[in-house]
Amino acid sequence: MAEVRATIHAEVIVVDNGSTDATAGEARAATDCAEVVIFLDGDYSFLPVDLPDLLRPIAQDHADLVLGSRWLGSIEPGAMPPPQRFGNWLTARLMNRLYGLSITDRGPYRAIRRT
């Protein structure tokens, strides 16, 4: 959380999805007054320092939803086993073809306008 707050002015809301650390306690303090909601895994698969780049298209009114991309950045060794890499690549390509999108990753690093 400290890294996020050091990068952008934000209220940090932690949501627990079954973790075994202190996430559940932090999640109990959540509120829902955000204009933009950011999804960021706590395992540093994406870095908080990249938040300004993720938020820029929303701040400039070019997008309502922005997806981060491990393919355009970097993927830590061992972070995505081969079947996951292939499935991610395949679904991104299918979405591009079927819906005219231009995505490279369906990763967990996302920003979306709350409205």
Question: Would you write up a description of this structure?
Answer:
With 115 residues, this protein is an alpha+beta fold. It is globular. The chain has helices spanning 2-7, 23-27, 51-59, 82-99; strands at residues 36-39, 65-67, 110-113. The chain has 4 helices and 3 strands. The model has no long low-confidence stretch (mean pLDDT 81). The protein has one domain (2-113). Strands 1-3-2 form a 3-stranded antiparallel sheet, with helices on one face. The longest helix is centred in the C-terminal third of the chain and has 18 residues, at 82-99.
Summarize, please.
This protein is an alpha+beta fold and 115 residues long. Helix content is 33%, strand content 10%.
Strand content: 5-15%
Return residue spans where pLDDT drops below 50 for at least 5 consecutive residues.
none
Number of E strands: 3
How do the helices and strands follow one another from N- to C-terminus? HHEHEHE
> CA-to-CA gap between the ends?
24 Å
**How many helices in DSSP terms?**
4
Based on helices, strands and strand pairing, what is the structural class?
alpha+beta
Any descriptors?
115 residues; alpha+beta; 3-stranded antiparallel sheet; 3 strands
List the topology elements:
Blueprint: H1 2-7, H2 23-27, E1 36-39, H3 51-59, E2 65-67, H4 82-99, E3 110-113
Antiparallel strand pairs: 1-3, 2-3
